[in-house]
What does this fold into?
Amino acid sequence: MVQTKFNAGMTCGGCSGAVERILNKVDGVTNVVTDLEAKTVVVDHEESVKPEFLLEKLLKWGNASGKEVSLA
It folds into this structure.
């Protein structure tokens, strides 16, 4: 199991809920923890799931919502 951390410009519960829904749909993701105050997301996933692929998913959300997203 691998753990990847992202910085995400989440500003409300809707943002964190959307991020969790998006990442939980990815095959191989086993757990998603968002921290609204710290604006971070920690994802537990199988080694076959590349962090860059998860970042791509989050960037689609970020671009649509005007939020910044990056690997931590």
